[in-house]
Design goal:
By secondary structure, the chain is of the alpha/beta class. The chain has helices at about 5-15, 15-20, 65-75, 95-100, 135-155; strands at about 25-30, 35-45, 45-50, 55, 60, 80-85, 105-110. It has five helices and seven strands.
Length: about 160
Amino acid sequence: EEAGMRGSQNFVKDIPRNILDNSYTIVLDSVGAGDGVAILEEEDMYLKLNNKYPFVHPSKHDKELCDKVYKVTKSLNQKSPSVEVMKSKFAGTDASSFSLEGYKACSIVCGDKKSHFVVNWHTMEDIPKNLDKNVLQHVLDMILETVNSIDKDNE
């Protein structure tokens, strides 16, 4: 993983605006473990650079998209990790690169439902053997159903 979300920033800069204006971006970040799923509506610790100095700049994600993901997820009626829409309590995700440019985006992360902190994030424990297949399946189901719902809405 690159530092500072340079990949998503360059993607947003390089893709023609008319393509991103007509799309949704749902970023999956650290979705392999934990007993809670967070649909991030805001990230208060996004580090942005001005000409010379870094500063913390909050990014707000698309409320309609966050609410859509939540509503669809709740309709699945699965035995699953808890799911909530919330503000991030840790550093930013790639969704900020899209939201700060005015595109419709949100981020989904998994973690500890009590502390709301991502499990194994950027640690030596962030390895394949520590992935929880049930959590991964739940997030996959969330995304597939959200895409199907958005597709039906646009028929």
